[in-house]
């Protein structure tokens, strides 16, 4: 009997490791299933409903109603029913001016959207919604209508801040962090499309960091949540109910939604909003350079391993960059400790830098890294000084020397007079361009002036030929030209022809 008991105990002891392994496997499987259940949206699928979110957020979303008084007969006044810039506008303006009542003023009304971010009455919308308005009214979902004043507006980011005077705290929404948003995240738009207030639409983030050439600080969130006319200025929410974008534009041949809408990210809008609230205007940093994209060809011509950074085409006289020693031809790769991956990144980085700060700026110059100290200026002051300044004219001249598909000539009194070239433009004149040549591919035109070749100044057509030949002998496939067009400088990498 004792032997039987001992053998049973032995069998149980032998089975114990197997049972433990089974229990461990079951525990791991359970943990994995729980993790999958609690995982991101792709494991759970679409939200069951947006109703709770819409109910909570809608009271803070408002309709913006504006009115503007126009004289139909006044030159430049838009003609109702015709798109701005239409060739028929001029005809109808002339017609209306000849009518007895042609000068009678007419009130034009428009609608947009906005949202409350402060219970004391601070409202965000688009600049283009309230621009040039004589009167602005804010309509709330409970039927209340309040007159609004403009605290500040910024055409560059299309953001405006309004204030109303409520008799009680207003429902409001919080701004979120758009930098955490990812392509594929669910988003909800609430607004006033076609005057239909309180409209809720949902979709996903289709893309981020979109540049649609709307302004110098383009960094839009693209969404397929339906956005139509009247949604402008309304909020784009994440599923936490935070505003991560201000709806501002659509791409549509018909004027209706085709699933391509754009929002100003909250990360872009918030610094602007804070400045407009505090100062009534923006206060952006300024470097004082004109920059362009570093293409693969330009990178190769400069001996760079990869195309990155912002190429300085021109330095503003007396600006922060000139005082710091930045030169045309430098490639800015780092500003204030922040990497500059491409040209379009630099304006945003500089704009967000505190005015008056001295920051380290790293540039590539002649293949070497150079670090300079730049004291950041204020963009708005620079723009005010430049406003009204006449732009220099430009265009052609003289006896041809041929290279790169270009006919080149000397700059002299006759050529300057003939092509209205200013005295301060120095270099070699482009007299004609071979349509099939490499320079034509890059948009060089007769009348342009070549200022530098391979970052060396040129004064005669022979200088250009010699510099191009020298670059070819180095094995370069393209040569970098600094070209003046109508007084504006730009770098162009032109392919060197074989033979």
From TrEMBL:
The GO molecular function terms of this record are: serine-type endopeptidase activity
Catalytic site positions: 128 (charge relay system), 158 (charge relay system), 232 (charge relay system)
Reactions catalysed, semicolon-separated, are: Acts on substrates that are at least partially unfolded. The cleavage site P1 residue is normally between a pair of hydrophobic residues, such as Val-|-Val
| GO CC, one annotated term | periplasmic space
Instruction: Assign the protein's first listed, main location to one coarse class.
Output: periplasm
The record's keywords, sorted A to Z, are: Hydrolase, Periplasm, Protease, Repeat, Serine protease, Signal, Stress response
PDZ domain residues:
276-367, 404-460
Protein name in the entry: Probable periplasmic serine endoprotease DegP-like
């Amino acid at each position: 009997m004792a032997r039987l008991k001992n053998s049973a105990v032995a069998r149980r002891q032998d089975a114990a490791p197997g049972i433990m392994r089974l229990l461990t496997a079951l525990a791991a499987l359970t943990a994995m299933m729980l993790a999958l259940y609690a995982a991101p949206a792709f494991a759970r699928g679409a939200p069951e409903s947006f109703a709770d979110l819409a109910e909570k957020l809608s009271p803070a979303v408002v309709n913006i109603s504006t009115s503007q008084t126009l004289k139909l007969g006044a030159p430049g006044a838009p003609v109702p029913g015709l798109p701005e810039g239409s060739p028929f506008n001029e005809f109808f303006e002339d017609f209306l001016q000849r009518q007895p009542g042609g000068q009678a003023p007419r009130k034009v009304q428009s609608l947009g959207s906005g949202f409350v971010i402060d219970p004391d009455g601070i409202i965000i919308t688009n600049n283009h919604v309230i621009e040039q308005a004589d009167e602005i009214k804010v309509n709330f979902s409970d039927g209340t209508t309040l007159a609004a004043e403009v605290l500040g507006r910024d055409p560059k980011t299309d953001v405006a801040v309004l204030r109303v005077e409520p008799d009680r705290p207003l429902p409001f929404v919080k701004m979120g962090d758009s930098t955490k948003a990812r392509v594929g995240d669910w988003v909800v738009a609430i607004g006033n499309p076609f005057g239909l207030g309180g409209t809720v639409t949902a979709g996903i983030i289709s893309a981020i960091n979109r540049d649609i050439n709307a302004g110098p600080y383009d960094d839009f969130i693209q969404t397929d949540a339906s956005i139509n006319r009247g949604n402008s200025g309304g909020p784009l929410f994440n599923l936490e109910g935070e505003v991560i974008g201000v709806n501002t534009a659509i791409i549509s041949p018909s004027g209706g939604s085709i699933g391509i809408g754009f929002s100003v990210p909250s990360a872009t809008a918030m610094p602007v909003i804070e400045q407009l609230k505090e100062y009534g205007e923006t206060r952006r940093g300024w470097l004082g350079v004109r920059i362009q994209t570093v293409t693969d060809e330009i990178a190769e011509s400069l001996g760079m391993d990869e195309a990155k950074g912002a190429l300085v085409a021109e330095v503003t006289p007396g600006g922060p960059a000139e005082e710091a020693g930045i030169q045309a031809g430098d490639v800015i790769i780092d500003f204030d400790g922040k990497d500059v991956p491409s040209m379009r990144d630099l304006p945003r980085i500089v704009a967000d830098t505190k005015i008056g700060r001295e920051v380290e700026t790293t540039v590539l110059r002649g293949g070497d890294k150079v670090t300079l100290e730049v004291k950041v200026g204020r963009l708005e002051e620079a723009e005010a000084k430049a406003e009204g300044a006449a732009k220099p004219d430009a265009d052609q001249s003289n006896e041809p020397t041929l290279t790169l598909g270009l006919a080149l000539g000397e700059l002299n009194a006759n050529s300057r007079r003939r092509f209205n070239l200013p005295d301060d433009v120095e270099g070699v004149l482009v007299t004609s361009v071979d349509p099939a040549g490499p320079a034509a591919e890059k948009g060089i035109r007769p009348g342009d002036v070549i200022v530098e070749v391979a970052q060396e100044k040129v004064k005669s057509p022979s200088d250009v030929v010699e510099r191009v030949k020298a670059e070819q002998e180095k094995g370069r496939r393209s040569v970098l030209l600094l070209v003046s067009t109508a007084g504006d400088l730009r770098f162009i990498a032109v392919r060197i022809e074989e033979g």
